[in-house]
């Protein structure tokens, strides 16, 4: 059946044929079963490819061009109910309700028995009581018309008459052109009836057809049901399509936000599947689409793989880094799919002794991730990244903690003024009587700022990973040995990377840069079972204590006056005894020169305001 100029072509059957006799019998039975006579029903309207109109919305087409597109797909051009609804909605937003009503009344005068036009006029009524009464009357006249049934359901929903709305929804025929509207009403009905996941009927419209109204409704229902990941996913999909007409930086930002929202809603997704989706989203925005071909760093035995984010890896990743975004995307056998978007990223290249080619150091202003991410940095590519935002917040918290010290208390106290150390049992550590706090106070007392000390400590820790990670990335180290280290770490520390964290922090201490500050982090983590690296840092502290005792150092509680140089020398001796390669001194100095210190005014937050920095922990990697 086709539509031409607003009239239907009809299909007729001779009443004298067998088929005609059966049709007459059916019509008679239907008439006996209904309470009132119904006007003859025209064939269902032709389905419209509404994606043409949605794309125009997303591209923010000029108003006059969009209006012409709507005219081309509306009632007068195609006889399309769906297209006319979009045309009416456009004009309603411009305050033309009266003009629209008069226009449809003129069409109805020519076709008084046309239920499509009756529906299109009724939906223009603003008063909800009148709207409901009108649609209930139209249902009595045309009970098998999908749009009218849905109009009656929606008007009942407006007045919270959910039982009557449900009956109309069940009675509405499944017409293709009305499917999107039917799904939207069904989702609202499910939410009102407090059914679980009321948005299910809308999801296909939202994420396959990209219907704007469906995306907005999914987001609304999900927020009401406290399903924030789905709400964010729907709004990110909407933003993705809206960004088609945006500038390049906005398009890339929308792509990344869509990626984060997808993983927040579906953390179980596979890496290859996600890369295919990235190509589809990139195609919508006309961005580079070589995601599946992007080179990866792979660990043996399928343990992990990560996209190589460095410039030159792929056109897609190069485009992101050109806009100040570095994408860290991969999967591991232990944690599944992992994603980190580094925003406002500043990347520098530098030579590193022993490395086959220059490494990348990236400092970012903030990160986006599907899950709250407290990591200050990580050596997860050929180099490492560090975060300025969390570094500044943690430094503020530590500065505040030091400021609460009693000003009458000196930076260190005599041995006889300290409580005696209780006896140790098994794995206990000696009491240090707030050594971490006093080490920080001593460092700040030398005139250095907490943010600068935290920044240098972080850079040294992340650099401390390079002697272990670069040989693996460049194929100069044995993966079998790395596997053995991981197994030992799991056995001793309950985490596969414990030994790497031990070695990185030992190298950071041995570098001599912010050594007191970094030792304070070790002390904090060793005393806090909830700290990310509690067990490897506890091992490190015990080893330092044993070596210090062998060298004639006093108990840890009396280390408050120790300098960065003394702590560095102790760490260097421990590294030598463990066969841990030290950081190259010249490269460390060059790194500190290249990576500008934290802006003293950037990222300021009230002390202890951010939960990620609670407890002044020092999570890394």
Q: How large a portion of the residues is in β-strands, by DSSP E?
A: 5-15%
Count of helical regions? 27
Largest sheet: 5 strands, antiparallel
Write down how many β-strands occur, each being a DSSP E stretch of 2 or more residues: 11
User: Runs with pLDDT <50, length 5+?
Assistant: 1-40, 600-621
Structural class: alpha+beta
| Shape type | elongated
Mean pLDDT: 83
Helix content: 40-55%
Strand order of the largest sheet: 3-4-5-6-9
Rg calc: 34 Å
Distance between the termini: 63 Å
Characterise the protein shown here:
53% of the residues lie in helices and 8% in strands. Strands 3-4-5-6-9 form a five-stranded antiparallel beta sheet. A four-stranded mixed beta sheet has the order 7-8-11-10. Strand 7 (346-350) and strand 8 form a beta hairpin. Residues 1-40 and 600-621 have low confidence and may be disordered. Helix 10 runs antiparallel to helix 11 (179-192) and helix 15 (248-265) runs antiparallel to helix 16. It has 27 helices and eleven strands. By secondary structure, the protein is α+β, with helices and mostly antiparallel strands.
Question: Keywords, please?
Answer:
5-stranded antiparallel β-sheet; disordered C terminus; 4-stranded mixed β-sheet; about 625 residues; alpha+beta; elongated; 27 helices
Write the layout of secondary structure elements.
Elements: E1 3-4, E2 7-8, H1 18-33, H2 51-58, H3 63-72, H4 75-78, H5 81-92, H6 97-110, H7 115-122, H8 128-141, H9 146-158, H10 162-171, H11 179-192, H12 203-207, H13 212-224, H14 228-242, H15 248-265, H16 271-285, E3 296-298, E4 304-307, H17 315-322, E5 326-332, E6 336-343, E7 346-350, E8 359-364, E9 366-368, E10 377-381, E11 383-387, H18 388-403, H19 435-445, H20 450-463, H21 466-473, H22 479-493, H23 498-511, H24 515-527, H25 534-550, H26 564-578, H27 585-594
Parallel strand pairs: 8-11
Antiparallel strand pairs: 1-2, 3-4, 4-5, 5-6, 6-9, 7-8, 10-11
């Amino acid at each position: 059946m086709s539509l031409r100029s607003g009239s239907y072509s009809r299909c007729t059957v001779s009443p004298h044929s067998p088929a005609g006799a059966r049709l007459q019998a059916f019509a008679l039975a239907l008439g006996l079963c209904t309470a009132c006579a119904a006007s003859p029903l025209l064939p269902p309207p032709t389905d419209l490819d509404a994606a043409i109109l949605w794309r125009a919305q997303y591209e923010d087409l000029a108003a006059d061009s969009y209006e012409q597109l709507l005219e081309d797909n509306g009632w007068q051009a195609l006889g399309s109910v769906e297209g006319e609804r979009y045309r009416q909605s456009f004009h309603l937003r411009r305050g033309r309700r009266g003009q629209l009503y008069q226009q449809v009344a003129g069409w109805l005068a020519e076709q008084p028995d046309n239920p499509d036009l009756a529906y299109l006029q009724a939906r223009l009524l603003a008063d909800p009581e009148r709207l409901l009464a009108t649609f209930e009357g139209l249902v009595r006249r045309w009970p098998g018309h999908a749009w009218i049934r849905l109009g009656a359901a929606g008007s009942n929903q407006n007045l919270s008459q959910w039982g009557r709305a449900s009956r109309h929804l069940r009675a509405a025929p499944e017409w293709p052109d009305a499917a999107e509207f039917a799904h939207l009403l069904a989702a609202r009905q499910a939410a009102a009836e407090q059914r679980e996941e009321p948005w299910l009927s809308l999801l296909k419209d939202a994420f396959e057809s990209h219907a704007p109204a469906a995306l907005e409704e999914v987001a609304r229902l999900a927020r009401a049901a406290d399903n924030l990941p789905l709400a964010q996913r729907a709004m990110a999909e909407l933003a993705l399509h809206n960004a088609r007409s945006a500038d390049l930086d906005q398009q890339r930002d929308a792509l990344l936000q869509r990626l984060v929202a997808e993983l927040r809603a579906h953390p179980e997704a596979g890496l290859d599947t996600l890369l295919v989706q990235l190509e589809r989203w990139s195609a919508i925005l006309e961005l580079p689409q070589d995601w599946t071909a992007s080179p990866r760093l792979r660990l043996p035995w399928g343990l992990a793989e990560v996209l190589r984010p460095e410039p030159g890896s792929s056109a897609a990743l190069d485009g992101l880094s050109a806009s100040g975004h570095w994408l860290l995307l991969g999967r591991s056998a232990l944690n599944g799919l992992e994603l980190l978007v580094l925003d406002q990223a500043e990347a520098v290249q530098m030579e590193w002794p022993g490395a086959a080619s220059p490494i990348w150091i990236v400092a970012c202003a903030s990160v986006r991730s599907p899950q709250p991410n407290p990591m200050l940095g990580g050596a997860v590519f050929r180099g490492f990244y560090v975060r300025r935002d969390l570094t500044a917040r943690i430094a503020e918290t530590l500065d505040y903690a030091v400021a609460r010290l009693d000003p009458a208390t000196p930076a260190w106290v005599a041995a006889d003024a300290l409580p005696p150390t209780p006896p140790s049992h098994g794995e206990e550590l000696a009491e240090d009587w707030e050594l971490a706090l006093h080490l920080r106070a001593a460092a700040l007392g030398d005139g250095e700022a907490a943010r600068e000390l935290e920044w240098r400590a972080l850079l040294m820790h992340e650099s401390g990973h390079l002697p272990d990670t670069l040989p693996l990335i460049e194929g100069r180290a044995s993966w079998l040995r790395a596997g053995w280290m991981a197994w030992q770490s799991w056995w001793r520390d309950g985490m596969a990377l414990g030994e790497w964290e031990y070695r990185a922090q030992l190298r950071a201490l041995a570098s001599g840069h912010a050594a007191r500050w970094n030792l304070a982090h070790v002390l904090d983590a060793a005393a806090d079972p909830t700290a990310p690296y509690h067990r490897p840092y506890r091992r490190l502290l015990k080893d330092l204590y044993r070596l210090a005792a062998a060298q004639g150092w006093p108990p840890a509680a009396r280390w408050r006056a120790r300098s960065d140089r003394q702590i560095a020398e102790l760490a260097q001796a421990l590294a030598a005894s463990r066969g841990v390669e030290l950081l190259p001194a010249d490269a460390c100095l060059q790194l500190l020169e290249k990576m500008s210190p934290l802006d003293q005014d950037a990222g300021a937050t009230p002390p202890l305001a951010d939960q990620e920095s609670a407890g002044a922990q020092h999570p890394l990697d």
